[in-house]
Amino acid sequence: MNKDNVSAVITTALRFGDNAMVLGQRISDWVSRSPTIELDIGFANQGLDLIGQANLFYELAGRLEGKGRSADDLAFLRGAEEYYNLQLVEQPNGDFARTVMRQVFYATYAELVFDQMVKGKQEDLAAIAAKGQKEMAYHVRHAGEWVVRLGDGTDESHERCQQALDYLWPYRHEMFAYDGVDDEMVGLGVLPEAETLKAQWMESLGNIIERATLTVNDSNWQPGGGRDGVHSEHLSYLLEEMQVLPRSHRGAQW
Amino acid sequence: MTNKDTEKNEDWPLFEVFIRSKQGVSHVHAGSLHAADAQMALDNARDVYTRRNEGASLWVVPSAAVTASSPQDKGAFFDPAESKVYRHPTFYDVPDDVDCL
Q1: Which of A115, A120, B70, B90 is at a distance of 20 to 30 A from B33, taking alpha carbons?
Q2: In this complex, do A38 and B51 lie within 8 Å of one another by their Cβ atoms?
Q3: A62-76: pLDDT as tens digits
Q4: Which secondary structure element, helix H or strand E, spans residue A238, and what is its range?
Q5: Whose CA is closest to A54, among A9, A10, A24, A89?
Q6: C-alpha separations of B93 from A12, A176, B86, B90, B97 in Å
Q7: Contacts across the A-B interface (CB distance below 8 Å)
Q8: Apex CA A134: angle with CA A132 and CA A135, to 5°?
Q9: Selection from A218, A217, A183, A211 nearest residue A197 by Cα
Q10: pLDDT for B10 beyond 70
């Protein structure tokens, strides 16, 4: 890894750290509000998986950056314009159908990325990905089964699931919109080629959508920019709530 | 919990959860949970009962499939064994150099 790559590795670590942080925060919002206690615990587990991943990515980014920023500093003291997550993960939970649909979208993407990252030439990212791989595989399984169950369920669950798919479908574009940083990572074997990633993601989602008896309604709208710090309004509210304590009481400890 | 919720939950059958903690030991009953189908029961069991690294293998069994002995039969079922201590293999001297018995 030469010096130029360091900046790209930091950006990549922040992007995936932020994806995990924001989605982990979203998912944990279901705790105490899930339809059953089993799901309550299931979502808590998934939220913790993601926040654990975020912690590792942030520690790496902070270390490589060398400015003494801790994982907590990166999580709690950056505003929305400095967050580099996909707009997909900041979308509000909506109903249960949209939550599990969003989880399938992201976990399928993250699993495919981590499958490549473990083989990449950046050892720290490879180690984080090795842990994340199995976690994401379970999220895909868990949320995927729910999408199929609801999509192929009652009229109401099918309708809600279809609405969730329609709402989230445009947000997939951003996963495959590579920039110079991503190209560098592809060069190091850290990220899959955009076209490969897209083909595999579309195939996995296609299978789930078919089993769920849902229909893809495509539009020309292609939201993007999250990975450069451009976000929907939803992220600011999420961060505001998440960060209020560390921002009001700097250096607060448990 | 409202009556409506109760009714809804009762639509989901009960499953018994068995966990094997490592290779070579038996599955042990861990508890029970509600799920709409066996697949969901397996996921729920994983989420509820193996969060602290308890498991190497999981079984879920519909509680309705379990046939249990009835409390009234307790005497006839279990008391006759009380007086038959010779069924415990404790009447043999184990040679000192046998370690793995």
Answers
A1: B70
A2: no
A3: 999 999 999 999 999
A4: helix A233-248
A5: A24
A6: 67, 72, 14, 8, 12
A7: 29
A8: 60
A9: A183
A10: no
Best probe of the A interface among B44, B49, B50, B53, by most A CBs < 10 A, is B44
Residues in chain A with pLDDT values less than 50: none
Task: Confirm if A28 and A43 have CB atoms less than 8 A apart.
Answer: yes
Determine whether the interchain pair B40/A149 forms a contact, defined as Cβ–Cβ distance below 8 Å. Answer: yes
Please give the ipTM for the structure prediction. 0.78
Best mutation target among B5, B12, B15, B43 (most A Cβ atoms within 10 Å) is: B43
Residue type, B28: V
A179 CB-near residues (< 8 Å, 6+ apart): A227, A228
**pTM surpassing 0.80?**
yes
Enclosing H/E stretch for B30 = strand B28-34
Residue contact A42–B34, C-beta within 8 A: no
pLDDT of the residue at A2: 64
pLDDT tens digit sequence for B40-49? 999 999 999 9
Counting beta carbons within 10 angstroms of the beta carbon of residue A196, is it exposed (0 to 12), middle (13 to 18) or buried (19 or more)? middle
